[in-house]
Specification:
765 residues, alpha+beta, Penicillin binding protein transpeptidase fold, 6-stranded antiparallel β-sheet, 5-stranded mixed β-sheet, 25 helices
Length: 765
Amino acid sequence: MISRWWFFPALAVLVLPLLPLLLIIFAAVMTYPTLPSLESLTDYRPKVPLRVYSAEGFLIGEFGEERRELLKIDQVPDLMKKAILAAEDDRFYEHGGVDYLGVVRAALTNIISGSKRQGSSTITMQVARNFFLSSEKAWSRKFNEVLLAFKIEHNLSKDEILQLYINQIYLGQRAYGFAAAAQAYYGKPLEQLTIAEIAMLAGLPKAPSAYNPVVNPKRAKLRQMYVLRRMHELGFITSTQLEAAQTEPFVAKHGNQEFAVKADYLAEMVRQVMYDRFQEDAYTEGYKVYTTIRQQDQAAAYAAVRSGVLEYDSRHSYRGPEGFIDLRKDHSEEFMEDALQDVVDSDDLIPAVVVAVNQKMIRAYCKGGQVAEISGDGLRFAQHSLGDKLSLNQRIRIGSLIRVQKNAKDFWQIVQLPQVEAAFVSASPQNGQIYALVGGFDFNRNQFNHVTQAWRQPGSSFKPFIYSAALEKGFTPASIINDAPLVFDAAQTGSQPWQPKNFDDEFDGPMRMRQGLTRSKNLVSIRILQAIGPEYAQDYVTKFGFDKDRHPPYLTMALGAGAVTPMQMLTGYSVFANGGYRIMPYFIRHIENAQGKVISQSASVVAGSGAEQVIDVRNAFSMVSMMQDVVRFGTATRAMSLGRQDLAGKTGTTSDAMDAWFCGFQPTVVGISWIGFDTPRSLGDKETGGGAALPIWMDYMAKVLKDTPEAIYTMPDNMVTARINDNGLRDPDGARVDYFYQENLPPEAGSGSSERLDSVKDQLF
């Protein structure tokens, strides 16, 4: 009896300490079968965004809720892996899912510090949490996390677990995985990151928002320094590497700067095509779209449009500050930076707050921390806004919100967000591949794509199509047309009485058709259209891709009173540049699925091989020759500063200078430039296609044709050259040589009736 009495208490003394362990084991046995299947890990299929690439393979656009780029573990740089281990789990390859030494170490550190400063989650536990569990802070969730970690370790290798972690972890800026984060924060692939940049990324998993270098650069810097020290302590980097990384400038990209080049309008066009085809799957299935856009061309076009618009804006008045920030109570950097966070960026037009101002100098705090001092020529644009007589909203004073920019000489200058818009598009006239497309000044401010959506009057840039029609009616570059006044009643115009004028309000009498185009004489174009008939011209221009209904058959068509888009003008001018073939511009080369298989490829149609010939090659050659004279001697002579003889094109300025155009080409590339206001209004009395639009085209062509040999246009068969006099008649002593269809040679001088041209041309007087 006595021994039994002692047995149960003794048993209790032995069992009770083991009871928690037994309960844990029981709970584990009961819970383990209910854990989620690891199928989502072994068959990992995350949502991968739609990616858009240039022709060379540079990323230019991305669409989807999650930025991702999947990598195999052997594609991850060794230093990146070591940095992750240093920051998150340096014993990863030693433990079995739970690092017991790490748990003890974290507990001791937290007890000593009196707060929870260190966690004990391993990389395996984080994979378990990210794939299967919520982030709630509960013992049940932590218990399941540990069991899942054991299950994962039992079924996957260490490298497979680390690969999942590297691809899945959220790192801020919508980036999931380190490859996507490298693009989001630095605009380059993992293998190009420096040690300092690697350490910054490795520090993000702990708290992506708190350590985001874009939002919280100071905290991100502290975390980066910690990771670098850990890498050094673990022997992953040398003391020299540590010192270099610690002193490296701390820079992270903002906004869309992660892409190799600005191509937002083109990327959006791709997105629309992909959504029409795949609907919501377009954003999650990892499609890759390779475009025809060439990186250098796109960069040149983007810079040309920005420069052209700002040059135009500088010729007109400064409208005053964008707003006002009250600095009377607080003028600290933190306050000004917070106030500027909501101000929309526009590339290099940096928002800034004026902190000091007088007639000779402005000091302004720029978004991002720089302080700009503007003086001398940098103030010239806004000099009138420094006076005291202006209203407060127009005057630059302390607290004014302005825009500043560094000029080519690296000096600060005052600028403003322009109200005017512009567009540029270029392509190969031989196959239609679009090389560059800029649909507006700033996609973030205005998503309206002026290349494809803006229906505007083309003005004189439409004249070449009327002249081309005239060549098919028997006209020649030497045909004489009278540049003299005309008056039309409402029945002839389709609207109201009309007395057209030339741009310079001068009339120069009879001149050759070539001169009429070179000098962009309106009355010459109208008389040509009169002779060939508006209905004929209306049908004829459809050969170039224009909509018949948008070009009513009235004489105003001769001056470009219809409606076109820059993309249509690109198609039309390509016909001249390639010898008469209609080539449809396109921007998608091929589409790949997530596995890299090509699922769609653009058909290759080339001028002279598969493309439809819409005008006689002789017609195209004649028009090119005349448009070369526009550049050499006419309204586009400033383009001769490019130092080439193979450029051709036509300026365009509409009534009251509502629109300005230049459409031009060289045999390898066609470019269309347009500038105007979205709500049409005059660009200004002195603004023309040659002054506002041509510089954009020139800036682009100067860069893309830099290493392109000068082309020579070869005269086609069944054409002849002939020497002519000022009356457009063949004359062995004539001062000029021109090109003619063999069957359309002009009469010889002194041949009797030849002194007056045939009856069709008589009508033109």
